[in-house]
Amino acid sequence: MKKISFILSIFGIIGFIVLQAGNKTTVADAEHEIQTLASVLQNENILITGWSLYARESLENVNDQEDVKGLVQDLKGKLPNWTWTVSNDSNHGEIVAVSKSSRLHEKIKIISTDTNGQVHTYVMYEVRGQSWNKNTEAFLSKNLPSRIFDIFRGNATTFSCIEGIINDKIDSALPVYKSKLLKAFNAKEIEGLEEDSFISTSAFSPLFDKSLSSEHDMNMQLGLRKTERLGGKTTLVVGTPIITIEY
Predict the structure, then answer these.
(1) How far apart, in whole angstroms, are the C-alpha atoms of residue 190 and residue 182?
(2) Which of 71, 142, 186, 232 is the most buried (most CB within 10 A)?
């Protein structure tokens, strides 16, 4: 009996180590990606006006509604000051938790779908900010790791996006800006769309480790727009591996 308990303890320790390794990989990837995006844009004298980091994971071990309730209770215990709302119908449930401050907007969304008694659950986390400064970098290095560890159980998929305004005394055409930014990211364009006041391009940059998928050898997207609303400024959105916000 003692031998069985010892073996189970070993498996438990191994599982904990694997879980920690997965979460550390997620945090390292997410922090590296968004810090790289910001660094390249700042080097190009681009004013960052917003940023977001999005992560999601399919929870394979959450198989019924009791498992979902247990997950939610665990998160509520770790995040007691967040605002929680629940909406359910016959086979679909959505639980949303929100935390807002003057600097950040964080959201957790847990979606579960019951298909013939089999529950499929996804957990998603998003954090948004309106500027890039020392407080932003401190959150990413100090607070983000604990968020990822609290919310996710394995290796979540992450997406990073940054919005900005190009500060250029010479009003260049959009294709010129696109070429400069692709060069700054050392990126090769894969496909794109060009209109008079809008450009969208998908590319591959060696600055980012992962690709969208094994079938799609791309890991960044760039959107540029000329807008009269901001006094003729050129705005941009760049994301890895894809842009996940409206642009």
Answers:
(1) 11
(2) 71
Q: Read off φ and ψ for residue 16, nearest 5 degrees.
A: -65, -40
Q: Do 50 and 129 form a contact (C-beta atoms < 8 A)?
A: yes
- Angle subtended by helix axes 144-151 and 65-78, to nearest 10: 160
Residue 184, C-beta contacts closer than 8 angstroms, at least 6 positions apart: 40, 43, 44
Judge contact between 162 and 34, C-beta under 8 A. yes
Specify the pLDDT at position 107. Answer: 96
* Cα 210 from Cα 69, distance rounded (Å): 33
Q: Determine which helix (DSSP H) or strand (DSSP E) holds 40, and give its type and residue range.
A: helix 2-43
Q: In degrees to the nearest 10, what's the CA dihedral of 179, 136, 151, 37?
A: 10
pLDDT tens sequence across 106-154:
999 999 887 777 778 899 999 999 989 999 999 999 999 889 888 987 7
The beta strands (E) that lie in 101-197 are given as 104-115, 118-129, 157-166, 188-194
Distance CA 162, CA 28 (A): 18
- Would residue 158 be called left, alpha or beta, if left means φ above 0 and alpha means ψ between -120 and 50 degrees? beta
